[in-house]
Amino acid sequence: MFIETPKTVVSKSDKETFEFLNDLANFEQLMPDNIDKFEVLNENRFLFALKGMPEIVLEKKEQTPPHKMVLGAASEKLPFTLSADITAISENESEVLLSFAGEFNAMMAMMIKNPITNFMTTLSTNLTKV
Prior knowledge:
Layout: E1 2-4, E2 8-10, H1 14-22, H2 27-30, E3 35-42, E4 45-50, E5 56-64, E6 68-73, E7 80-90, E8 93-102, H3 106-127
């Protein structure tokens, strides 16, 4: 399953945007309103839970400063990645494309597609506000 948000313009340089995303504590600002729990476990991992959903631990998987950040599920039960591709527009603006990729059976994919699409859209929208 692959989900991609529309590109979002951020009022920060590509370097500043990358540094913002690289500090995992900043993800709390991007989370939806229905967040139930958020905790930074270490500099490479954080955990979050939305109301009515299980806790998810994300960890840094890959980085290419200042252009790409890939987070992935720490658990092998639900293998997926969340990627941010950052492109410089000007000295003070960058464009971010968020994408989600995961290997799920058809039933699971059908159940989680809408919630994940909404989650990704919220992250993208909130990124424009930072």
